Amino acid sequence: MRRGRGAIIAIVALALLALVAYTGYAATTVYQQLDGGRQELVAAKAGMSAAKLSIDPAQLRASAAHLRQAERDFSEAGRRARNDPALRALAGLPAAGRNLDAVTHLAIIGADMSRAGEAATAVAIQVAGLKQQYAGRALTPDDLQVVLQQAQGIAKDYSASTQAIGQQLRDAHAKRAEVTTTDLVGPLKDAYDAVDAALAQADTAFLRFQDVRQVLSDFLGVRLPT
């Protein structure tokens, strides 16, 4: 009888160890996916910055690919954080629950910002193509008027992109407002500090993005007539 009880205890102990191990694996996977998304965003930003010095739209297309991968990484991290049984069980503990909820929000914010970047990059690719068209020659006043007309066409064609970017940023801000960082573990606090800085930069960039003349002036290196 005692041997039977010992076997049951051993089985329960092994099951608990397996649960702990799986929970650790699930948490590690979520972290890796979040970090993967972060790295893809960093790569996309670097590509966008380099594109300002280049007339090759390929750099922007590469940035768009990084942004799509970032969105996938963040979305998968959020899905696992929300739905993984072991992590949901862990969420029943007050402190762990708050941190897990913050992780879920972080994933949603990352996906929102990735989608906003994708929409912006789609427009930037068109602008880079316009720059390539006029590369290597001095622009005459007539050229500037033509460029302005083309810019207005780009603005009209991609007005939906502008609306999408604005909506994604509003969604990201809304999710950020739902998280209080006071009780979060150190790495999560740092992550939210980075999110706050990124959102501020995105808001500023979005204001400039809506000014087609300014966007084209930056890419073409000339001041367009008003």
What does this structure look like?
- Helix 1 packs antiparallel against helix 2 and helix 6 (159-177) runs antiparallel to helix 7 (186-209).
- This protein has one domain.
- The N and C termini lie far apart (92 Å).
- By secondary structure, the protein is an all-alpha fold.
- Helices cover 85% and strands 0% of the residues.
- The protein is elongated and about 70 Å long.
- The protein contains 8 helices and no strands.
- The protein has helices at 2-51, 57-83, 85-90, 94-133, 141-157, 159-177, 186-209, 212-220.
Short description:
By secondary structure, the protein is mostly helical.
Based on the structure, what is the oligomeric state of the protein chains? single chain
Low-pLDDT ranges: 1-26
Q: Structural class from helices and strands?
A: mainly alpha
* Strand content bin: under 5%
Q: For the terminal residues, how far apart are their CA atoms? A: 92 Å
Rg, alpha carbons: 24 Å
The number of distinct β-strands equals 0
Question: What's the SSE blueprint?
Answer:
Layout (H helix, E strand, L loop, with lengths): L1 H50 L5 H27 L1 H6 L3 H40 L7 H17 L1 H19 L8 H24 L2 H9 L6
Which key phrases capture this entry?
226 residues; disordered N terminus; mainly alpha; 8 helices; 85% helix
